[in-house]
């Protein structure tokens, strides 16, 4: 029947053609046929030429003269490709103050937002290839960070740079690889204030032997000062050698080594002295509340040595009111039972349950949980370690607030040689982030009654049992009863096949995680789908939009700059898949005829309306007044220098904006060269706020994937921000009196948060941002004075909030936006 209907339709369509149409089609077919014949003739000619060239080449390659000259050609090729063993190029550079920097008698002072130090070669010749940079530094900070830019084309670009972290009086050279054709070097301090002086700056080109010698010298010095770290590097190097050969090992060795930086940070700020331990013990004695904490440990065939270290880390706790509840999941290694029996006999606080069958980690954890009699339970894996003050810090928080029902801490990892690496300094409770990543992880402590009430660990969620338990506990408690402790209290052990090494070693984990999050969303009544992003071993949650998509008005202030505005509005109209929107362009005194012609073109679409405001530029007032003219339930604030990248950008932002509890939504913005301009806002950077991961490449995942995962943040930029119109009006909109240009978006977000609403950043909405292309930067004295006044306003109004961003971490720096360590950290040590 289907084929019969199709045949009838074909006959009907044929009858509709006139004889003129048929003649026209015949002529077109004849023309196409002649073109195809020409192409075939050209192809035959090219084929014949190719055969002739192959014949000649074959004769040359088989000739006696070609074979006799082979060694000469090979030596010439090697001489071109080989790096010389020794290079003698040495260059001196003179540093002079550029923009944002003042120099007085050799002392540089940072006075602007984007400080620049110009570097001039005394010989007018610039180095290439591997170099050793000597940068003698004396500063008021004791340590400074710089970006070394190298120009190979007409101008400096964001990607042509190297990060430098220089301590005072450092004699160690920095090893850097520069490309061919460097025309200019520039040194940009990555700080906001401070004074410093630079000694004679020298660059020495390195040959192959010199580079190898420099690396070996650096590693030898490190080995003398920290033998355990060196052994760890050797062990890791052997693994890299097996996996990637000499090339892979060389690439890794020459990368920036953050392990050494963390070792220095731990030595300075995260190592308990004998005096610290005495003060902690004294503080414990004064606690009015001393709850028993049950440490729950499922065990199955761990290396006996690591099991001993795990148990000893509990026995070494400064807080004495604990019990260790171990369930052995029928280990087959007799050494495990020997360790358990020995500790069971020497410490009555250690309880052992020996399971008759192997039930995997969820059932084993429940068996350990049945032994627990404490008011709180702490989770410990059988090859990891607690820090000596871990349970004390838990008790410290419980003495401040006995209503807490879930506590978690920062963590790091330990290599098989005991070297601490890869610290994870976490956000305070972050609902959106927790849907994509179990960032709570370790150390996690629960109120025992709540764990039992939700049913403990669930069979079938092995590999994600901790995440699943946390999600069910969170569903059962008030989120105000969750507390983050910004101290490293837990060490993961990195051994072959462990989750600490990689989730990809346990492929079943991702499926279990997906189901845990899906069921959590179902319990909460949130309509969403959950996907596995295999590239980064993380989850993506797609929230559903209502059947009838809400109407949203896009507000875009502008003044002339027609090319920018055209690109922005056209990309929105042409690419945006979300359909229920209109655009209000707020013209702030344009005078170019092309701009008005553009306005007319936009208005013809029927989706764009133009408002005119001839007064002095005031970003806050322009947007506030525009909102007063619309009645749509949602507002999107956009800059006129944006360009849409992802077609679903507005669908993604609106899918969050319509959710209960969400107050404002921000997008990921990129510079035109692909570097990140905005990944959310961190409070306190530069005294007020800075952009998250600014300057990172687009493909960079950021600090523990935080650049590429949706999450709660304290603020997002109004360059692209979506929120409910009613909420915008409730909090008073943008402050047009004292924050006319800068920080009005941060102020708005903080007012929204104060009313109990969450701010969401989503990386799945991406746009280019040609930042300040339309207005320029704060370069005039008037603009600078105004900007300083806006800084003072924010510091007066939000001083306490700016000091401690709950979605950042006090162990991370406020000097710049790269999530590096704070020197010193701002995390309080209550025993001091």
Structure summary, number of beta strands: 35
* Main sheet overview: 10 strands, mixed
Query: Which word captures the global form?
Result: globular
Portion in beta strands: 15-25%
What structural category characterises the helix and strand content?
Answer: alpha+beta
Integer-rounded radius of gyration: 32 Å
Query: What is the CA-CA span between the terminal residues?
Result: 87 Å
Which parts are unreliable, with pLDDT below 50 for 5 consecutive residues or more? 1-17, 77-82, 497-505, 773-779
Count of discrete alpha- or pi-helical segments spanning 4 or more residues:
24
Question: What's the overall average pLDDT, rounded?
Answer: 83
Portion of residues within helices? 25-40%
Question: Which SSEs are present, and which pair or pack?
Answer:
Layout: H1 2-15, H2 19-62, H3 64-68, H4 70-81, E1 90-97, E2 101-104, E3 107-110, E4 117-121, E5 129-134, E6 137-139, E7 143-151, E8 161-167, E9 174-178, E10 184-189, E11 195-198, E12 201-205, H5 208-225, H6 227-253, H7 258-269, H8 274-285, E13 293-299, H9 304-315, E14 322-328, H10 334-346, E15 350-354, H11 360-371, E16 376-379, E17 385-386, H12 390-400, E18 406-414, E19 420-424, H13 431-434, E20 444-447, H14 448-453, H15 465-476, E21 482-493, H16 508-524, E22 528-533, E23 538-543, E24 552-558, H17 562-575, E25 581-587, H18 593-604, E26 608-612, H19 619-627, E27 634-638, E28 642-644, H20 649-657, E29 662-670, E30 676-678, E31 681-683, E32 689-691, E33 711-712, E34 720-724, H21 725-730, H22 744-754, E35 758-769, H23 781-797, H24 799-803
Parallel strand pairs: 13-14, 13-16, 14-15, 18-21, 24-25, 24-27, 25-26, 29-35
Antiparallel strand pairs: 1-4, 1-12, 2-3, 3-11, 4-10, 5-9, 5-12, 6-11, 7-8, 7-10, 16-20, 17-21, 18-19, 18-20, 22-23, 27-34, 28-35, 29-30, 29-34, 31-32, 33-35
Helix pairs in contact: 5-6, 9-10, 15-16
């Amino acid at each position: 029947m289907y084929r019969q209907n199709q045949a009838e339709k074909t006959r009907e369509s044929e009858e509709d053609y006139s004889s003129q149409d048929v003649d026209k089609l015949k002529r077109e077919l004849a023309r196409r046929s002649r073109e195809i014949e020409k192409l075939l003739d050209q192809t035959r000619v090219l084929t014949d030429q190719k055969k002739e060239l192959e014949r000649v080449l074959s004769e040359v390659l088989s000739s006696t003269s070609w074979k006799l000259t082979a060694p000469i050609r090979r030596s010439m090729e090697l001489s071109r490709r080989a790096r010389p063993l020794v290079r003698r190029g040495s260059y001196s550079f003179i540093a002079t103050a550029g923009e944002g920097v003042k120099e007085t008698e050799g002392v540089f002072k940072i006075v602007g937002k984007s400080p620049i130090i110009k570097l001039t070669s005394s010989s007018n010749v610039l180095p290439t290839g591997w170099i050793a940079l000597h940068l003698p530094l004396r500063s008021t900070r004791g340590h400074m960070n710089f970006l070394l830019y190298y120009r190979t084309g007409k101008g400096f670009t964001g990607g042509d740079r190297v990060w430098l972290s220089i301590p005072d009086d450092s004699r160690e050279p920095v090893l850097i690889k520069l490309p061919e054709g460097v025309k200019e070097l520039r040194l940009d301090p990555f700080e906001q204030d401070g004074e410093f002086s630079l000694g004679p700056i020298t660059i020495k080109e390195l040959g192959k032997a010199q580079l190898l010698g420099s690396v070996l010298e650096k590693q030898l010095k490190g080995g003398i000062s920290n033998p355990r770290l060196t052994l760890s590097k050797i062990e890791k190097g052997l693994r890299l050698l097996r996996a990637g050969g000499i090339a892979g090992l060389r690439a890794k060795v020459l990368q920036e080594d953050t392990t050494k930086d963390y070792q220095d940070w731990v030595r300075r700020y995260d190592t308990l002295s004998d005096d610290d331990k005495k003060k902690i013990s004294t503080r414990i004695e004064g606690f009015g509340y001393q709850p028993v904490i049950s440490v729950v440990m499922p065990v199955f065939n761990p290396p006996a040595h690591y099991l001993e270290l795990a148990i000893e880390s509990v026995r070494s706790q400064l807080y004495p009111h604990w019990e260790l509840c171990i369930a052995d999941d029928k280990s087959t290694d007799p050494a495990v039972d020997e360790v358990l029996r020995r500790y069971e006999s020497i410490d009555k606080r250690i309880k052992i349950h020996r399971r008759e069958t192997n039930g995997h980690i969820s059932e084993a954890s429940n068996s350990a949980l049945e032994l627990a009699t404490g008011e709180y339970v702490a989770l410990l894996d059988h090859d990891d370690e607690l820090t000596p003050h871990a349970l004390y810090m838990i008790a410290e928080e419980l003495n401040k607030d006995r209503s807490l029902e879930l506590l978690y801490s920062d963590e790091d990892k330990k290599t098989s040689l005991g070297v601490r690496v890869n610290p994870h300094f976490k956000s305070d409770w972050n609902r959106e982030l927790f849907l994509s990543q179990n960032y709570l992880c370790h150390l996690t402590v629960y109120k025992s009654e709540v764990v039992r009430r939700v049913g403990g660990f669930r069979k079938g969620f092995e590999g994600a049992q901790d995440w699943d338990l946390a999600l069910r506990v969170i569903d059962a408690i008030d989120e105000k009863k969750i507390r983050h402790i910004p101290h490293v209290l837990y060490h993961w052990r990195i051994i072959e096949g462990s989750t600490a090494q990689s989730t990809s070693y346990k492929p079943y984990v991702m499926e279990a995680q997906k189901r845990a999050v899906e069921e959590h969303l179902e319990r909460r009544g949130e309509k969403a789908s959950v996907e596995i992003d295999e590239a980064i071993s993380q989850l993506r949650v797609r929230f559903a939009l209502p059947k009838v998509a809400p109407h949203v008005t896009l507000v875009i202030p502008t003044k002339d700059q027609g090319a920018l505005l055209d690109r922005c509005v056209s990309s929105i109209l042409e690419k945006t898949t979300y359909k229920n929107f209109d655009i209000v362009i707020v013209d702030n005194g344009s005078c170019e005829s092309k701009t008005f012609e553009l306005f007319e073109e936009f208005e013809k679409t029927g989706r764009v309306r133009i408002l005119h405001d001839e007064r002095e530029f005031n970003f806050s007032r322009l947007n506030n007044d525009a909102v007063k003219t619309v009645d749509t339930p949602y507002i999107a604030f956009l800059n006129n220098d944006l360009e849409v990248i992802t077609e679903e950008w507005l669908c993604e932002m609106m899918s969050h904006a319509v959710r209960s509890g969400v107050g404002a939504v921000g997008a990921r913005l990129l510079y035109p060269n692909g570097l990140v301009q905005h990944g959310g806002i961190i409070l306190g950077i530069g005294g007020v706020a800075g952009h998250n991961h600014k300057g990172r490449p687009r493909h960079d995942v950021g600090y523990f994937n935080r650049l590429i995962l949706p999450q709660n943040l304290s603020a997002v930029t109004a360059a692209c921000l979506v929120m409910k119109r009613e909420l915008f009006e409730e909090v008073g909109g943008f402050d047009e009196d004292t924050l006319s240009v800068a920080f009005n978006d941060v102020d708005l977000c903080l007012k929204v948060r104060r009313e109990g609403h969450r701010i969401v950043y989503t990386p799945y909405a991406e746009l280019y941002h040609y930042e300040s292309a339309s207005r320029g930067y704060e370069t005039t004295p008037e603009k600078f004075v105004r900007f300083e006044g806006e800084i003072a306003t924010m510091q007066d109004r939000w001083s306490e909030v700016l000091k401690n961003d709950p979605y950042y971490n006090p162990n991370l720096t406020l000097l710049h936006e790269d999530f590096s360590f704070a020197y010193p950290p701002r995390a309080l040590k209550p025993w001091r």
